[in-house]
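A further point concerns the way the authors explain their paired sequence and structure data. Showing the layout once, in full, would remove most of the difficulty. For illustration, here is how one protein appears when written out as sequence plus structure tokens:
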Amino acid sequence: MERILSLAADDLEALARRARDLAPHADAVEFRLDALSGVRRGELPTAAQLAEAARDLPTPWTAACHRAGEPGVVGGALLDPEARLELYRRAAAAGAAFVDVPLDLAPGVPSLPGKAGRILSRHLGAVPTNPGDALAELQRAARPGDRVKFVTAPEDAVDLLRLLLALERHVADGGAPASAFATGVHGLPSRILAPLFGASFVLLAPPAGLGVPTAVGQPALDVVDAAWPEGGVDSSTRFYGVAGSTARHSLSPAVQGAALRARGVNGVYVHLETADLDALLDLVGEHPRFGGLSVTAPHKEAALRRATIADETSRAAGAANTLVRTKQGLSAFNSDVSALVSALSRARTGARSALVIGAGGAARAALLALQRLDWPRTVAARRAEQAKLLAATFGARAVALEELDQVAFDVLVQTTPMGSSAHPGELAFEGELPPGCLVLDAVYRPLNTPLLRKARANGCEVVSGADWFLRQAAEQVRRFYGCEPPEDAMTRAFFEALAAEL
């Protein structure tokens, strides 16, 4: 599987320098000729100039000239079709191994000078109902020696997986060497996963500071290399992911990826942002390469319903945050509960009564953990009816948010998004905190939430969302990969990923 580094620059000399510097780190480089300022003005480089730019490269090079406005493309040039065809011919004559030819222009260059092959490509804004049809159309136009490439912009991981499964069928049917991947928010997981579904090449951006992406959401070479097993993907590589409505913001890929590398597990882990967990599992739940999912909001209850087997904790919580593919089917676990029991039981406070704010999957886990600790518990949430239902389920008392000043507690567990980067500055609890109480905030972005700042100012003991997150992630490592979690490596990856966001 070729890692092709897609390179852009304003002038040919700068492009040549960048290619010489970066080519040793990839299997091939792509010259994005549409990024050249001269090409954008309609001035085409000669074949001799292109050959000079590619001189002494240690890897093969390919050429592309995308049109402005092409879906997912950064840049592009407003050349008429004949000028683009002429540029393709010149690139081929200059020694390009492949030239990226859009499907609609392919009849104009049925063959190319020199030994150049064609990459027949198609870029669409959205994944079609049957992405296999697009690949079949490319295949019908392909000639011996050609490759095909299908790029689109899924809005949901379900569409991304439909695209990758279509690629897998194309390869299984003996189609031309191919790649299919995504632009936009699903760009990173698509290019990590593409080789598992049969891609023979994938286009990547230079490492940070050494160039810019040439497509929307195009990940850097070093980022994707780090996500793959050492030595690359092979026929035994499995994939895992975090599934949720805002999964792209999860730090699970960084933390689980660190565990995979530290333990030498032959797997990859990606974010799978989806509004429909059932549809996603319908596609890959029985795929031989699928290993399991971390499940986040709002799908934890759906994960439990979908499981073939569920542990007692998941059943008691009414929610699962971990699905593992086994010979018996999907097994559900809830690592949130054990992580919270561990975090609370190690706290210094002699706590005996707790208040939980929230009514989602994390609140369910918190109430079950407190039930197992045998601490009296109260729950309050914006969704009052849901809070009452949780109270009845977990032997708690439900109160309205406006009645919180009447609740006695020495532990506060905050499970809503309030105070997170999505709701900055918001306080889930605005009343007075009892002196010396324990405050646990499930939010970990930022680490020092408004609630935790308030708690520290009042002399309270605090447990951050990072502690809860890392404890539950460690238990998922045991479930997914059958090994002990490399806690130091996971913690380091967590804080490095947070720091990189600043």
